């Protein structure tokens, strides 16, 4: 297995949780949400917020952001426009390590 093939396989495996969560959310949006009518106090709706958060931040942080949003969506909330925060820039640094042949 070449290095590039290994990297592709690892990226696919790493994207599986995100894809599974997005599939569940899309199913909710298509089949369950139309039966309840428009009830969200915020824009975008809570399910669309979750989709954007997971796409932008990944599975773990996206679920945390969506959960926090659901906790804020209650009858005592004023609602309004609530955008997903922008993604943080990556802080990874690639450093070259010189190999010594001594």
UniProtKB/TrEMBL annotation:
The keyword Cell cycle does not apply. It comes from the Bacteria. It is a peripheral membrane protein. InterPro entries: Membr_insert_effic_factor_YidD. Keywords: Cell membrane, Membrane. Signal peptide: none annotated. The keyword Membrane applies. Could be involved in insertion of integral membrane proteins into the membrane. PANTHER family: MEMBRANE PROTEIN INSERTION EFFICIENCY FACTOR-RELATED (PTHR33383:SF1). HAMAP family: UPF0161_YidD. This is Putative membrane protein insertion efficiency factor. It comes from Cellulomonas chengniuliangii. The gene is yidD.
């Amino acid at each position: 297995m070449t290095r590039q093939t290994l990297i592709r396989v690892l990226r696919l495996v790493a994207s599986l949780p995100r894809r599974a969560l997005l599939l569940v959310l899309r199913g909710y949006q298509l089949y369950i949400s139309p039966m309840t009518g428009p009830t969200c106090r915020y824009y975008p709706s809570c399910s669309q917020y979750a989709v954007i958060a997971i796409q932008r931040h990944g599975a773990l942080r996206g679920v945390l952001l969506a959960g926090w949003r659901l906790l804020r969506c209650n009858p005592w909330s004023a609602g309004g426009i609530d955008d997903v925060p922008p993604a943080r820039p990556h802080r990874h640094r690639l450093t070259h390590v010189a190999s010594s042949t001594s």
